Automatic annotation (TrEMBL):
Protein's organism: Sphaerobolus stellatus (strain SS14)
UniProt lineage: Eukaryota, Fungi, Dikarya, Basidiomycota, Agaricomycotina
Record has Hydrolase as a keyword: yes
Domain of life: Eukaryota
Keyword terms, alphabetized: Hydrolase
Pfam families with a match to the protein in the record: Abhydrolase_3
Name recorded for this polypeptide: Alpha/beta hydrolase fold-3 domain-containing protein
Domain Alpha/beta hydrolase fold-3: 126-361
Signal peptide start-end: none
SUPFAM superfamilies xrefs: alpha/beta-Hydrolases
Alphabetized InterPro entries for the sequence: AB_hydrolase_3, AB_hydrolase_fold, GDXG_lipolytic_enzyme
Length: 385
């Protein structure tokens, strides 16, 4: 705090006062200062181990008198018979069980009571998976990343009236208790998707799974789970994926000297998430090598085995990917796009690179006009499904 107030803040101001000195000349002074501040803020968590963003306790939220008003909902665990294959083995190895999940409904033009009701004929519904590096963040509508991510999309889509944001379990490791390693978050995301199918009655082709940052990583894992395993028609693949700044490798392999990982250090704030804590928390008892070679955790890793790459995205739904060209993970996202095109066909994958944008601007109401312009394009894509 001392260094930020008396050293960093003056330096950021002096180094951003003139447009030519800013990380991107198109950025306003506010953007340059905000990104630098966010980088320091996120870095503080990893430098000091202060748990300043651990999410919202669903048991406490459920007891609040306004729980219904803010769309809070309990959903049942993923049925045991739907936990199969490699993920079942990984869950056993990491002592992960299925669990009751919570989430929040966001709605537009309808009451919260209607938002909790059954799906209408041909109604489009979005399942949102929030950001936070798997270790922080919340689906709560106030004070976290889900609020602006969900309300922004609702505002700019004419065909979607409600979004369900899933509060998946957050992972942790030393110096905190070891909790919720992979696949805990994936099992929760699958439970939320199953809830939309079975209790809300939404048609799978009308569900878009929308994940930003680490939520995009979970959205990819959810789609993979439903394509590599054989289920009855009651648990099919969703209609579409929307990935905003998805985190697609938790062990950085895109490290070329002229690559985005080095080139975009001043225009991003997510670097601290890749310093090992998230990777360690996700892996639990799994070997470190898993972060490099597992398509569940790092689907864009350059170290994935050749046999894994073959048919890796076969059967995936139509996908729209958004990334800022100022992100350190830009190269990794391009690798993901290329792999998806190879497995799904060029017509089923679209990549939007937002000029001069940092990581996950959908959560940043100040990052204008890029945020609104991007949301309009996303809204048009969702409406076209």
């Amino acid at each position: 705090m001392f260094s930020t107030l008396f050293v960093r803040l003056p330096y950021w101001l002096l180094s951003s006062i003139l447009p030519g000195l800013r990380p991107r000349k198109s950025w306003t002074l506010r953007k340059a200062m905000a990104v630098a501040g966010m980088r320091a803020y996120v870095g503080t968590f990893f430098d000091t181990s202060l748990p300043f963003s651990v999410g919202n306790d669903p048991d406490q939220i459920a007891d609040q008198p306004n729980a219904d008003e803010i769309g809070f909902t309990w959903i049942p665990p993923l049925p045991e018979e739907l936990l199969v294959g490699e993920v079942k083995d990984l869950a056993k190895g990491n002592d992960v069980q299925t669990a009751k999940v919570s989430g929040y409904w966001f709605c537009k033009g309808i009451s919260m009571k209607a938002a909790r009701g059954p799906a209408g004929p041909d109604e489009k519904i979005i399942l949102h998976l929030h950001s936070g590096g798997h270790v922080m963040g919340s689906a709560h509508p106030n004070g976290g990343p889900a609020g602006p991510a969900c309300s922004g999309l609702l505002e700019h889509s004419s065909s979607v009236r409600r979004i369900f944001s899933c509060s998946y379990r957050l992972a942790s490791s030393s110096p905190f208790p070891n909790k919720n390693p992979f696949p805990a978050g994936l099992l929760d995301a699958l439970a939320a998707y199953h809830y939309l199918l079975k209790e809300v009655g939404a048609s799978p082709q009308n569900i878009t799974v929308y994940g930003d940052s680490s939520g995009g990583n979970l959205a990819l894992a959810l789609a993979r789970y439903l394509t590599v395993n054989t289920f009855p028609t009651s648990f099919p693949v969703p209609g579409a994926l929307l990935l905003f700044s998805p985190t697609v490798e938790w062990a950085v392999t895109h490290t070329a000297p002229n690559g985005s990982w080095k080139r975009n250090q001043r225009t991003d704030f997510s670097q601290s998430f890749f310093r090992g804590y998230t990777q360690r928390s996700l892996l639990g008892k799994l070997p470190t090598e898993t972060a490099y070679v597992s398509p569940w955790i790092s689907p864009a890793s350059l170290k994935l085995p050749a046999d894994v790459l073959t048919g890796m995205f076969k059967g995936f739904p139509r996908t729209y990917i958004v990334v800022g060209d100022g992100e350190v993970a830009l190269d990794a996202t391009r690798t993901l796009r290329d792999r998806m095109v190879a497995g799904m066909g060029e017509n089923n994958v679209e990549l939007l690179e937002v000029k001069d944008a940092t990581h996950d601007i959908v959560t940043m109401r100040f990052f204008e006009p890029e945020r609104t312009e991007t949301l309009k394009l996303i809204g048009a894509w969702v409406d076209s499904l």
